[in-house]
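Study this pair:
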Amino acid sequence: MVRRRILVTGRVQGVGFRPTAHRLAASLGLSGFVLNDTRGVTIELQGETSRIEEFLTRLVGSDKPPLAQIKSCEAADLPTCEGESGFVIRGSRSGGQVLSEVSADVAVCADCLRELADGGDFRYRYPFVNCTNCGPRYSIVKTIPYDRPNTTMSVFPMCERCAAQYADVTDRRFHAQPVACPQCGPKVWLANRDGSVMQMGNDEAIARTTRMLRAGKILAIKGLGGFHLACDALNNDAVLELRRRKRRDHKPFAVMAGSVEQVKRHAVVDLAAEQALRSPESPIVLVPKRTDATIAPAVAQGVSSFGFMLCYTPLHHLFFAEGLDVLVMTSANISDEPLICENELALERLGDVADAFLMHDREIYRQVDDSIVYFVAGERVVLRRARGYVPTPILMQEDSPQEILAAGTDLKNTFCLVKGNQLILSEHIGDLEDAEVYHHYVGSIKHLAGLFEVEPRVVVCDLHPGYFSTQYARSRRGVRVIPVQHHWAHIASVLAEHGLAGPVIGIECDGTGYGTDDAIWGCECMIASLTEFTRFGHLAYYPLAGGDKASKEAVRPLLGLLKQTYRPDFRLDEFSWLLERIEPDKDRLGLISEQIDKGINTVNTSSLGRVFDAVAAMVGLGGFNHFDAQLPMALESLVEPGIDDSYEFDLHRDGVEPLQLDLRRTLMHVVGDVRSEQAPAVISAKFHNTLAEALLAMAKAARGDSRLEIAALSGGVFCNRVLTSRLVARLKQEGFAVLLNRDVPANDGGLALGQAAIAVNHLLSCVP
């Protein structure tokens, strides 16, 4: 007889881990208990050694709950307890307080789908079937503890059958807070634009919705984390009409299919992509288009990938059971406003967009967008972190001395809370320049801080004084504010993900970030740790005119780059053949040129993102970013495969100044190729190859000075799969170990994690 204490860490709370441990221990005749604590799940077992070993083998193997992700499982021997019998589930503990157990919303599981299709089951064709292994969580919880009375399911008293399953520790619905059935749970109905009921009854409403979609209508469908706007993805007229009504002329739409087989008819799906599509998180997965795809051209013009997801709620499965092929499923909002999740607000805001509304009466307390993932250098990477991943924390080795709020940045905002050893990154919030998004941001901070019982005494923000997120941080009373440079935070986000403190060679490439020299940075080589950074090198500065307009109008960075490249010989009329294709208004070109010459509303920048804009415009892909990174995405999609040629570039250092990457010769070659009518796909390939070689050269120079062998890549430019894959391969060929953002976005959506990690390290260094 032995007694053993086991600590299991990872995603092990709110996923049915304790009931699984109870059932397994009981089946093996072991006594003891299981509980949640600040580190994960603690189990104490007493019994025969062989049975405890079997318990451990099965717990992390065949019997592991489907949603659990085990990071570590450590065991230690204890003195036995005389007279102990039975195995029990104990309450959570966290320094005398109840530990929050809120987990992410996940896709309906295979067991529930079998019940959904089983005519003999009392949940047959019920659109809200769920269990401990699946269904809504974060989107329905109002406060902690995560019990049914504190969720939006509180208005649905359980019937006898549901209550019996909920209370049965051997049932997979034990303590599944959203458990329901047709007798006691939520219901759906179809409504007109004025809110009047078109069709009641789950089956009838779903069938009529399906008929309308087939007929080319646009439907607002209430799902797990908010409303989607849906239409037939094979009907180009319907897609164009949705674009017109939603006022989204260019940005690609996400699409949903009922099976991987349906996805494969339209896209190239390898094993890794298939696994991501089928995963419990069920994100949107970016997959290459097939040349024979029959999806409407208007769904995703100007890019080489489709954003596919599989249906992840029972309601979605019921649609596709009616024989639908592929649906556009895009967030129900106008422009970049917050996702709509309330029935009345949907009718008010979307009455001119949707032809009808499929609604339900389960309140969505937290609107949560669909997550997006893609693949770089063979690794799955998160592009937008939301449903399925939030609020799962990223864990640190040490506890933070104080609770922290990292405010993030203004574009693609997320924020991060720190409690104990948990880095709790929020869902995707959006761009804070929109007033509604900003109010949503403030409310989201309050909500998530309440769920995890965080009362920040330290707030971290971006160095840029004009950011709304910075202003919000400084408006909070009674807190210490720590400003952190934008690009350092990007590299720190990679370190935090990988559980490292540095130093590393940090290669950071994005659009804009406020620098310590008051310039706008955007292509930096750093020697960086969580303690400090040194700017080893950067893209040579060029003038950028127009403030925010410069991120939209490609002619602005292009003029700045041309002036820097050809000065003092630059003359506007000599480049009219190129510039007037992009900006036909000669007077406007002259004004921008004069603005740069006189330094009016013009800054020096090392932004690589704006260089992409300029090259995309030169090769004829357009002159305006209608959505973030539209032109760089188009340039990436254009790359001719199999081309290894590149352009020339220079590296130089002036005295003690940082190393500078000079792309003037590169740009001269691009101009020459454009003038000689070289194929745009070839120019794009050579440009991408040049940047990979240039960034590699900077990393090698930094290694020569620092003797460091680890390179960390971050920033929005590294959402470019062509550039990132090539650079990673070249770095590895040259003997570097390479770190990428994987679980948080490389763009500004992951920046708050880096801010938080820097602040924690700073506080730890101050502890005596």
